[in-house]
Each structure stands twice: as C-alpha cells, then as structure tokens.
Model the fold of this input.
Amino acid sequence: MSKDWKTRTKLVHEGIRRSQYGEVSEAIFLTQGFVYDSAEQAAQRFEKAGDDEFIYARYGNPTVRMFEERIAALEGAEDAFATASGMAAVNAALTSMLRAGDHVVSARALFGSCLYILEEVLTRYGVEVTFVDGTDLDQWRAAVRPGTKAVFLESMSNPTLEVIDLPAVAEIAHGVGAKVVVDNVFSTPVFSRALELGADVVVYSATKHIDGQGRALGGVVLGTREYIRKTLEPYLKHTGGAMSPFTAWLMLKGLETLDLRVRAQAAGALAIAGALEGHPKLGRVLYPGLASHPQHALAMRQLEKGGTVVAFEVQGGQDAAFRFLNALRIVVISNNLGDAKSIITHPTTTTHQRLTDDQRAALGITPGLVRLSVGIEDAEDLIADLMQALEQA
Ligand SMILES: *Cc1c(COP(=O)(O)O)cnc(C)c1O
Done:
C-alpha cells in the first residue's frame, strides 16, 4: 500500500488481503487453524513463519492481520498486535517488557483496571511502581531513576480530561532509558500522533472509538517491529490474549469510518461544551477544546482537537446529577465512550465507585461530576436534550 496515502484512504484500503473470490468487503477468516500442503511445509512454517503465513489463530489470522496493518498505517507504527480487549493490550504491553526488580513510574489518574495492573499485578511479581501527578513534570523528573524500565500514562485522563505533556515526559523517561507506554484512548487515534511525540508503545481499547458502535471488546498494541515481534508477540502468543477474527472484522469496518465519526463527535463535543459553559445549573465544564481548559494550549499542540468527551459538574451534587441523567431523552446512561450514541456516566457511583472519597477528591471527581461521551447525533438535538434535562436537575 502507498505511504503517500492520506488517512481516510488508508483507513479504507490498508492491509487488505483478497481471497481467490475477489470479495469487496474483507473476508472473515473464522478459522482456528490452517492446512499445510505437505508435512515439509508444516515443519518449515513452525521453524519460521513468513509474513503472510499462519499457524494458529492465537498467533495470528488473516482478518486480524488486516486490522493490525490498517491501524499500524494510521498510527505510523512499524507493527501492531491485536488483542481480545483493551485490558489484554495494556497488560501484555507492560508485562511482556518487565521483570522482577524493574521500576515503573505511572501517572496516578488511570482507568480503574489499568490502576489494578500497576498497583496489584505488577507489584505482586516484584516490579516497583511509583505514582505521580501526570501533569506535574517535576514529579516525573523526581521519580525516574536508572532502574526505571517503563513509564505509563493515559495521554488524556478519565474523567477530568487532563492532558499530559507527552514530549516532555518522553524526554524525561528516555533520559534514563525507560520506555514510554501510552494508553491513548481519550486522545483517539484520529487526533493523537503519540509515536511521533515520543511514545515507544501505544495501546488502544478498540472497544471505544475504533469499533465506535458498541458491538465488541478489542484492543491493540503498536510499536516498533522489534518490540512487537521480539517482546510482545511471544508473551501474547503463549498467554492467549488474541483478538477473534470476527472481532477483527468488526474493527476493520470501524476503522473505515473512524476519521469521519471522530471528527463529527469532536465538533459536536466542542459545540456542546460551548453551550454548557456558564449555564447557571453547572459548575466546571471541562473540555480541552475550550479556551477555559487549564491545558488548552497544550491540548491544541498535542491533539489538534479537544476530543469527544466533555465532563461537567451539575450543581447540587449527586441528587441533582441523578435527576439530570434520568431526564435525558436522547443521551443514554451507560459507561462506554467513543460510541456513535451519546453516552452519559456518573463516575462517582460507577466507573470510579471503588475509589475512596479522598482518592476521588484528589482526582477532581466530585459527586456532581458527569462524563458525556458525545456521539454522532445532530449537535443541536443533543444540546436541546441536555438543556431540557438541566431544567429538571
Ligand atoms: C476502556 C478503557 C480501557 C480498557 O479497555 P477494554 O476494551 O474495556 O478492556 C483501558 N484504558 C482506557 C483509558 C479505557 O477507556
């Protein structure tokens, strides 16, 4: 495929493999294994499988490979490995590169399951983890040391949408030889060029914008060919986190419309954030695309747009927030994000329920805070829905 293709062309054509039937839509190779022409060929493939030679679906599959090549082309990554979920991707990205005695520095504001891997799993196997406020570069500088093997961060935090200065953190990490692993979900593959900005490994939950239609769990790890094939692949091959071919097909179809959807969602999010800001029933309205966002300038440098999520505080705490959620007619109450449907979440009682009051307070998660993932509906309809529900808050 051509290196000169622009994003939308790559998202439709990159990685395609056509069978002898010349199908237009990518085929679903729903097969666990592959037949060899001869015993010699089987032996040779087990010794060293070529680029388009498959052995077993836990190792790789043609439909999965199409998805991996397409997303790698979008990210400008040398290679990619698709996984059964976003968490399988985060776990494999970190566990495959670490061993007992290694040190990791991580931003504190993390998706709950990412926090579990860093706090509970890695430490159980002798990896030491230091948590920092990801937006405070002095804390990163103070925490890294010669034994630091990796730093981990979500480039935009959930749900308060703090943006981490990726090139600055990468410079600090690379100064001690640590790899930079970025969970890039909130920045989206459309707006973020994390590898260009200094990340060594980028991880996505494909469940979010890449599927974007609420159908399946999936994940992907992107990086250099050396890292993906020598470090990550052996770990994933043998521990079983592979993506299913059917999921890969859904994700391929998701990629075709990813750029269109995410740009429409971001435009809607900006319009909604602007309409909500200053509303008498609201406190803070957090959206990196608004000039009032504390890291607006950084977000515009790093992301081009403010993303697809808006967080805001309903005055009157949890009761008022619940009245607001229950009065919505278009926006649905759920906990996914990046979906074509607009989805609203009350983090205190759902995604961040397991944290203590103090931990939530430290992350800026107040009882009135809600997180809105903006879908592809007409923004005027969404604004009208939000406004009528606020009347009832
Ligand atoms: C959803 C999410 C994950 C986990 O992805 P799954 O596909 O649900 O396993 C990890 N990190 C972030 C930032 C997420 O939003």
Summary: The domain at 7-254 is CATH 3.40.640.10 (Aspartate Aminotransferase; domain 2). The chain has a mean pLDDT of 96. The CA atoms of residues 340 and 375 lie 4 Å apart.
